[in-house]
Amino acid sequence: MSARIHPLADVQSAAIGADTQVWQFTVVLGGARIGAACNINAHCFIENDVVLGDQVTVKCGNYLWDGLRVGDRAFIGPNVTFTNDRMPRSKRYPDAFPQTVVEAGASIGGGATILPGVTIGAGAMVGAGAVVTRSVPPLAVVAGNPARILRYLTPDA
Prior knowledge:
Layout: E1 4-5, E2 10-11, E3 21-22, E4 27-28, E5 33-34, E6 39-40, E7 45-46, E8 51-52, E9 57-58, E10 63-64, E11 68-70, E12 75-76, E13 81-82, E14 100-102, E15 107-108, E16 113-114, E17 119-120, E18 125-126, E19 131-132, E20 140-143, E21 148-152
Parallel strand pairs: 1-3, 2-4, 3-6, 4-7, 5-8, 6-9, 7-10, 8-11, 9-12, 11-14, 12-15, 13-16, 14-17, 15-18, 16-19, 18-20
Antiparallel strand pairs: 20-21
């Protein structure tokens, strides 16, 4: 089955996997690559240099900036803030944006802030509202500002 694009979405990319749904008021720029069976909710923005794996869920109100890589089965809760420039200045852009990685099966709770260049490890969970300032190991549960490891999950959780 082909991708289902809501008529009120602005999808410029042809690299959208089968069975992916893109909801209304979402913008996907031409260079973005989105895998199969993803669910991109309403009011999202996906920049050119963004890659989403298969079965990724992106809840409402997310802006996915250049340099973001998201693995298969990852979950991005509502209103997560990704940043891609550690020293932003108006009209001054870096030669390349740092790569931020959300590995397979990781989940990010609503309202979390993810600084540029970090990796959220496979199967990790980021608590709602957490501020992730450094990489999160696989299967770690982190929360707080700055995010700190609370515990580890078992691989089948």
